[in-house]
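Format notes (please read before filing issues)

Several people have asked whether sequences and structure tokens are stored in separate files. They are not. Every record keeps both together, in the order shown below: the sequence lines, then the token lines. Line labels are part of the format and must not be stripped during preprocessing.
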Amino acid sequence: MLLAITWLLMVVLQYVNKFCGSNLFEILSNMKNRTSVLVVGLGSIGQRHARLLSERSDVELSICDRIEEYRAQTIASIHGRKITEYADFTIALKRKLPDIVFICVPNQFHVLIGLEAIKNGVDIFVEKPISDSIESARKLVAAAESGKRFMQVGYMLRLDEGLSKMRELVERGSLGNLIGGRAMIGTYITLLNAKNQDRIKYPNSLIVDYTHEIDFIRWFFGDVVDIKAMGANLGSLDMRPKPNIFQMLLRMKSGALVQIHMDYIQFPQRRIFEVYGDQGSLSYDFMTGEIRHFGFQREHQWEDISVLPITDRWDGLFRAEHEMIFSRRNSGSVPLVSGEDGLRALEIAERAIDAMS
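Then the structure lines:
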């Protein structure tokens, strides 16, 4: 009898090794240690999160959206993996409480979903921006802190290879003292790809949408002490949110001056970041991957430190973000982008809107 059981186990292990590239004990361990994830909101970002999370053997995935078509699109993008779908978030929580909820619904519902998750003892990942208003965002951050829940905000550009290379040079002192910078995002394609018309319906969506730029400027330059801003609604394109072009000038605590330009006009998308110091400068084109470094000690000579275009690395950025979330959550470490970071970015956006002339 013992011999028969041993033989059967050997056959099973051989089968698993042959077809799964692993052994039985690893598979059982993965099943035991899986993180239960519920992705709520299946627009383009939510669908991407769900598709990439489905690749992970350590994730048990569920999805939720009231629109059946979006659920069907998400399921169709996931091959060889069974996932549970829900039309109602409250029902999803009651049926099986997840370990973490990925909140990818429209901005105005972030806090509603987040507070419900936290009340049920669930950790949260919130896509940027943290909310559509600073008042509600503060409630969410306070609830996560008092409930001792892990909370990360979706500013994954902090993991971008190009920005990381620039930051290494800045931290090494290659530019000397930072005196200024410029970030530019022009993206009519965002409106073309959107699954709803929220950006058209709600004013100032451009400024709140592209708090990515605000977050990575804070990452490089520190705190903002003063803001000037101007906005306009220009051009003859079919979709023209108000405003569809916006510029802000930030005075940093260090004294550096940084400009941010945003528009829903340029097509194809353009995204550029420049940093200037008293000993050199850096220029990064996200769309081409070109990074150029000029140091005063190298007379009139630019150094190219290019990376792949960000469009070729987009899925990789989300995968890196997921890995960062799970590793920090599992180890009890602080998140890469905290709720407080999300608050600061939204606060600067709202101050810029108030300062707009």
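For reference, the curators noted about this record: Residues 19-31 have pLDDT under 50 and may be disordered. The first helix runs from residue 2 to 20.
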